[in-house]
Design brief:
The chain has nine helices and no strands. By secondary structure, it is mainly alpha-helical.
């Protein structure tokens, strides 16, 4: 084989590999765009960051209603256990948001009340909530944060203390509440700080 022919074959191989790599990259980008379009249709959000955060949490059209329940679960589980009173309060709050027996959201909630979800799910849910809040007017975002922090405190307070006396919120729950407030503060510090200061 002549040197020219070998060099030509090497060049052809190189360009073929480059072309295949580019095609693969385009295919992956196309699939990601299609997936994000599907999520946009399911959730009604066009912001790619929100869609990716929702996708990471594993929420679907049937379970997105649980997004704002995730912080309640996170705080309730922060001391390593879910008390019956905490579980019932979360059920009641979720029911008020339309989570009823016989739905996928209800099944997911019941599982999360008995088996602690992974930390990554809580982080992704907080990120999604924070990103959604960033898209809202400041006043509406502050209302959502105030409401969420109030519900988190309410869930944390239903258990604790001895015979109803003493501190009703454990140190672990208090730390989880503070961490949640700091995390929400990342999107709109002024509104979140007001929520924390109200305590």
């Amino acid at each position: 084989m002549s040197e020219d022919k070998v060099r030509r074959e090497q060049e052809e191989k190189y360009f073929l590999e480059r072309e295949l790599a580019l095609k693969e990259k385009l295919r992956q980008k196309f699939e990601e765009n299609a997936r994000l379009k599907k999520l946009e249709g399911e959730f009604g959000y066009a912001d790619e960051r929100i869609l990716k955060a929702l996708e990471e949490t594993g929420f679907s059209r049937e379970t997105i209603i649980l997004l704002h329940v995730a912080p309640l679960l996170e705080v309730a589980w922060s001391d390593g256990k879910m008390t019956p009173a905490e579980a019932q309060r979360i059920r009641d709050l979720a029911k008020g948001r339309g989570v009823v027996p016989g739905t996928k959201a209800h099944d997911v909630l019941e599982r999360a009340l008995t088996v602690r979800p992974e930390r990554e799910m809580f982080e992704a849910a907080r990120r999604a909530i924070r990103l959604i809040a960033e898209t809202l007017p400041a006043q509406k975002a502050a209302e959502i944060r105030t409401n969420l922090m109030s519900l988190v405190r309410e869930v944390a307070a239903v258990s604790g203390g001895f015979l109803g006396l003493g501190t009703r919120v454990s140190q672990e729950e208090e730390a989880a509440i503070d961490a949640l407030a700091r995390d929400l503060e990342k999107s709109r510090p002024d509104a979140a700080r007001a929520v924390v200061d109200k305590r």
